[in-house]
Specification:
Layout: H1 4-21, E1 32-34, E2 40-45, E3 59-73, E4 84-89, E5 95-99, E6 122-125, E7 135-138, E8 158-163, H2 173-192, E9 200-205, E10 211-216, H3 223-233, E11 244-249
Antiparallel strand pairs: 1-3, 2-3, 3-4, 3-5, 4-7, 6-7, 8-11, 9-10, 9-11
Helix pairs in contact: 2-3
Length: 250
C-alpha cells in the first residue's frame, strides 16, 4: 500500500505535469498577433496561445514558397512603439520562422540561414544559396494619425475617393481614415517587394462591401499584387449609402 508521503509526491508530480501541459494565458503571450486575412501560405506551430491569434514564446511559423506572414503588435509593457512585421518567402523552399528571441520583434535569426542584422527596420536572408534572396522582412512602426489645424487628418500620398451619383463637397472623417489606413499598408507592400515605382490602383466598394479592383501598372500575378489585393479587399469598410470608387497613387 502506498504511504501518505508517496501519495503526496505522486499527486504533486501529476499536478505539475498538468500545469506544464496547459496552454498559457493571454497575459503571457507575446505582443504579436497573426493577421490571417493578410497572410498567405503559412502555418503556425508550437503556439501555446490556444484560441488566440497571438504568438507565444517559441512559436514556429512555416512559410510556404512565395508565402507571406503579416503580424501586428499589441500594446504591452514590453512594446514601447506598436509595429508590424511582414515577411515574404522569396524562395522555392519551405522556411521556418521561430519567435523565441527575448526582444521584439522576437524573430530568432539564429534559426535562419544567411541573415543580415536588422537595418532600418528591414531584414534579408539569403538562405542556403548565396546571393539569392530567400526571406525578406519589414517591420515598420504603426504611425499615429496626425491632425492639422482644421481638424482634418493629414495624408502623405495622393489618395482620392469619389461616389457614383452626386459628389460630396467634403470627405467625411471616417472615410478619410479608411484611405489613410489602406495607404499605410500599401506602402508596406511596396517596401516588402522592394520597389520605389509610383503605383496607381483603383477599386470600387459596392453596397454589399464587395471590392472590385482595377489594376493599373501592377502585374496581376506578382507578389506585389497579391499583397495589394489582400490589403484592399480585407479592409473592414464602413457601410456606405452608395457605391464608392477609390483611387490610390502610392
Amino acid at each position: 500500500m502506498m504511504s501518505y508521503s508517496h501519495k503526496t509526491i505522486v499527486f504533486l508530480i501529476i499536478s505539475l505535469g498538468l500545469l506544464t501541459s496547459l496552454p498559457i494565458n493571454a497575459g503571457e503571450c507575446r505582443g504579436l498577433y497573426v493577421k490571417d486575412s493578410k497572410s498567405s501560405g503559412m502555418i503556425v506551430k508550437k503556439n501555446n496561445c490556444v484560441d488566440s491569434p497571438h504568438l507565444s514564446a517559441g512559436s514556429v511559423v512555416e512559410l510556404a514558397p512565395k508565402g507571406r506572414l503579416w503580424l501586428k503588435s499589441v500594446a504591452s509593457d514590453s512594446i514601447s512603439t506598436k509595429f508590424q512585421l511582414i515577411c515574404q518567402n522569396r524562395s522555392n523552399q519551405l522556411l521556418e520562422l521561430e519567435f523565441s528571441d527575448n526582444a521584439s520583434p522576437w524573430l530568432s535569426l539564429s534559426k535562419l540561414t544567411g541573415c543580415n542584422d536588422w537595418v532600418n527596420n528591414k531584414l534579408s536572408c539569403n538562405g542556403k544559396k548565396e546571393n539569392q534572396l530567400a526571406l525578406y522582412c519589414v517591420s515598420p512602426p504603426i504611425q499615429q494619425k496626425t491632425v492639422d489645424d482644421s481638424g482634418t487628418i493629414e495624408r502623405t500620398t495622393s489618395l482620392k475617393m469619389r461616389s457614383f451619383g452626386k459628389a460630396n463637397a467634403q470627405t467625411p472623417v471616417n472615410q478619410q481614415k479608411v484611405l489613410d489606413t489602406i495607404n499605410s499598408e500599401l506602402q508596406v507592400c511596396k517596401q516588402l517587394n522592394q520597389t520605389t515605382q509610383t503605383l496607381t490602383i483603383q477599386w470600387t466598394v459596392d453596397l454589399d462591401k464587395k471590392v472590385a479592383l482595377d489594376w493599373k501598372g501592377i502585374s496581376v500575378d506578382s507578389a506585389l499584387s497579391s499583397c495589394t489585393e489582400a490589403v484592399i479587399t480585407t479592409y473592414p469598410y464602413p457601410t456606405f449609402s452608395e457605391a464608392k470608387t477609390f483611387n490610390a497613387t502610392f
